[in-house]
Amino acid sequence: MNRRKLQLFCLMAAGMLQIAGCETGSDAQPDPVTQIRAEKSNQDKASAENRGTGRDYIFQDSDKKLLTEDNLSNIDSRMLELARNEIFARHGQVFKRPDLKDYFAGKRWYTAVADYNGSLTDTESRNLKLIQKHEKLMSANQLEKLWDVDDHVLGYPQGDESIRLPAANVDLNGDGTVEHIQMNLIRHNEVSDEWNLSVNDTELTIELSDSYSTSYFKIVDSDINDPYFEIALEDSNESAQFTTEYYYYNGHNLIHMGTLDGLTANALSLDGKGTVTTSRQAIDFQCWFYLETFELDAEHMWKASPADYYPMEPPTPWVAKVRFPVYKTSGQHDILKWVEPGDSVYFQGGDTEGNGKIKTEEGTTGWIQVKDGHLAGTDTDIYDCFEGLLLYG
């Protein structure tokens, strides 16, 4: 099978992975399809004095004012959990879980009260119940493995997205002032929809594929130790390739942070410490997915943090159709052994430089290489060298 046919198979198969977006309720993916048409001035960077200063509260007045659906419907499950515990922390709740203990210990307003009995005001109790309602609504829609043959094919189960709203009222930059976020459909085109995303008086025009029902945004917290909440838009093009667009608001402008592969606006992908894990598709040795890490840089932009090796989990069984060499080390040509036609091997993963790791049936582990589309040591296209290449279809 040649490369063009394999790519077509991959795209057709990926289209079968129809999944709806919602983030996880636990503690607390390849060409970009979103075109951002924003003024160049919107690429201003946040002021240095706001870097790393953190924010005081998820919801500053949840002890005095009733929260509404506009405050909660679009925000991430990790933020909901922190907002729920924030209510108790104001009274000095002593936290046993290390992450919560460390988080609230870093708040200048928090003082532990050993004998706090858990009592709340009526306003706090009502806010607690509303937060718990939204945590429950999202708990069933956690990012999950979709296919047993590839642990890195990730998506959401089909879920009810009616809890998402096209507008929200949330403090995005931690200055204590609530922003109004709004998303409106401007125009429906043949393969995409044109949207207006606004924060207060700042507006962006965004194109999203009409093959994925994205009529809402998500508010996430990429790093719980900085002032910002981020706006995330998950999208899928006509080939069912998933991406997530990220923005933050610096008090004046909406800043585009980057386009990441996969559906990442969830607490499973975002660790809350400035790192996100994305599921990316590779078409080299076979059609497969691997997990890649991005980190927030000093300008609050997503920057790739590539690995030397990405595992295929579980390994893919192949049967050799040609004789080819297995090398001792990645990227080198020191031959470990030869694999003969009819021999069974297992593809275990690879890197982004055309090097793949395989394991033979008798247990020998070594490397193969792709050069100009051919399996190194042969004159054969990589996709004609094996039976059993993983195809999503």
TrEMBL record:
Residue intervals of the YARHG domain: 55-136
This protein's UniProt keywords: Signal
Signal peptide from the UniProt entry: 1-20
Pfam families the record matches: YARHG
Protein name as annotated: YARHG domain-containing protein
